[in-house]
Amino acid sequence: MKYVPFLKWWLFFTVICVAAIFVQYAGFYAVLWKKDSSYLSWAILGIFVFFSLLCGGYILRVCASPPKDKASFEDYLRQEEVGWFFSEFCLTLGMIGTIVGFIFMLSGF
Prior knowledge:
This protein is an all-alpha fold. It is built from four helices and no strands. Helices cover 85% and strands 0% of the residues.
């Protein structure tokens, strides 16, 4: 079972997709579109979906042919660092969105 990490990713991603469908039926996306005037939530959501799919592709590639030499392992580590960078970037966007929300809230006073 060399594809166990990919299957774990696939299960996690499928659960996220099912939850996203339930959120759509609940009308949350329409509320998010109407209430979020900075649209940072949509940027974070887009980055999350893109890099989740990219991560799944990397996991599938590594499961299919694990890195055998040092150069290919370093390439894998470099791709991992890109993933960590964008996860930190999403956290930073979230903090910026919080500050923007406070500014919008306090502008009414």
